[in-house]
Amino acid sequence: MGEAALIESIMGLIVHSGNTKSECMEAIQLAKKGEIEAAKEKIKLANESLIDAHHAQTGLLSQEARGEKVEVSMLLIHAQDHLMNAITFRDLAQEMIELYERIKGE
């Protein structure tokens, strides 16, 4: 994989992870207003973005598995950090939506 393709994969990881987190934040805000179904739809969108982020990551992992070293750079570390935060944020957003749903139901 050339340097341009590597940068493209890393940027895809950052963008899709960022989209995941944004969708989750919107989901929390919707749940907070009692719009539970809309919040769940946002989580579905977040999951789609997360899948795209995982595809970008998988490309890099596959390259490494083929014996083609992936240069570890600050940009790659930043991308991985975004992915891990997006996953954590998604998990917490789902929990918060469930809590708001319970509160609304009482």
From TrEMBL:
It comes from the Bacteria. Keywords: Phosphotransferase system, Sugar transport, Transferase, Transport. It holds the Pfam family PTS_IIA. The modification Phosphohistidine is found at H78. InterPro entries: PTS_IIA_lac/cel (IPR003188), PTS_IIA_lac/cel_sf (IPR036542). PANTHER family: PTS SYSTEM N,N'-DIACETYLCHITOBIOSE-SPECIFIC EIIA COMPONENT. This is PTS lactose/cellobiose transporter subunit IIA.
